[in-house]
Specification:
Elements (H helix, E strand, L loop, with lengths): L9 H38 L1 E8 L2 E7 L1 H9 L15 H11 L2 H15 L5 H25 L4 H11 L4 E3 H14 L9 H10 L3 E4 L2 E4 L1 H12 L1 H5 L5
Antiparallel strand pairs: 1-2, 3-5, 4-5
Length: 240
């Protein structure tokens, strides 16, 4: 029997790597990448809901809505917040709060504020008043930003309608407005009703129910006024 011998020349080894080893590496990497992509998609779909899928000549596009984001905000506990001081907080508790949330940057800001106050040339009582009003502004801005993180544009439009009507809208008009919104946004709010639509604004203290109507609170009307002065912030609201 003729014995088959193989000469392992450099050229043969290179060809072997090119034709066998490299595809094997690609296959291994592909399996790992596939698993990683699967995990990413699984994580994304866990946090988001597909509200609409559109097929066109250019391919498929999907409209994703973080449906649980606003709903979860409604049920979050309203504990102590870094943006506001509870009315019954003692001086000792306030100092402890400063230690808890303080940082090098807050120390830098504190020194800058003290230096600024020292050159204003006003009495101590007026300094306190100026600082109190400045803190009130900053707290209001923080609350407005907290709302804007998850508020829908359609919800803000409802507030605007209410603001132009002495801060009020009847339940019937609110329902008609919501039905019109559902038609515009297609399936994104198909599982929602009016109660769910206003749950977040009510939980945040923007509006409340009163004798067959809904009314804006002081916070709600102030939020509308603030956003009207900053229209670019309105455009950044969730497009629903």
């Amino acid at each position: 029997m003729e014995e088959l011998l193989c000469n392992w020349t450099p050229t043969l080894i290179v060809d072997l790597v090119k034709n066998v080893a490299w595809p094997l590496v690609v296959l291994i990497l592909g399996i790992g990448l596939r698993n990683r992509i699967f995990e990413i998609f699984r994580s994304f779909f866990t946090r988001n809901t597909v509200s609409e899928v559109i097929a066109s000549t250019s391919g498929f596009s999907a409209k994703f809505v973080a449906a649980e984001k606003q709903t979860s905000e409604v049920f979050e506990s309203g504990g102590s917040s870094a943006m506001s001081l509870p009315r019954n907080m003692s001086a000792a508790a306030i100092r402890e709060r400063h230690q808890q949330y303080g940082s090098e940057f807050t120390e830098y800001l504190h020194e800058a504020i003290v230096a600024h106050l020292s050159v204003l040339g006003v009495a101590d009582d007026e300094k306190v008043e100026l600082l109190a009003r400045e803190v009130a502004l900053l707290q209001a801005f923080a609350h407005y930003a907290d709302v804007s993180k998850v508020l829908f544009r359609s919800q803000f439009n409802l507030f605007s309608i209410m603001a132009s009507n002495n801060g009020c809208i009847s339940k019937e008009d609110a329902f008609r407005n919501f039905e019109a919104v559902k038609e515009v946004v297609s399936g994104a709010l198909s599982e929602w009703d009016l109660i769910k639509f206003i749950a977040f604004p009510v939980s945040k203290g923007l509006m409340y129910e009163e004798e067959g109507s809904y009314r804006l609170t002081t916070f709600g009307s102030s939020y509308v006024a603030y956003m009207a002065k900053n229209p670019h912030l309105i455009d950044e609201l969730a497009k629903l």
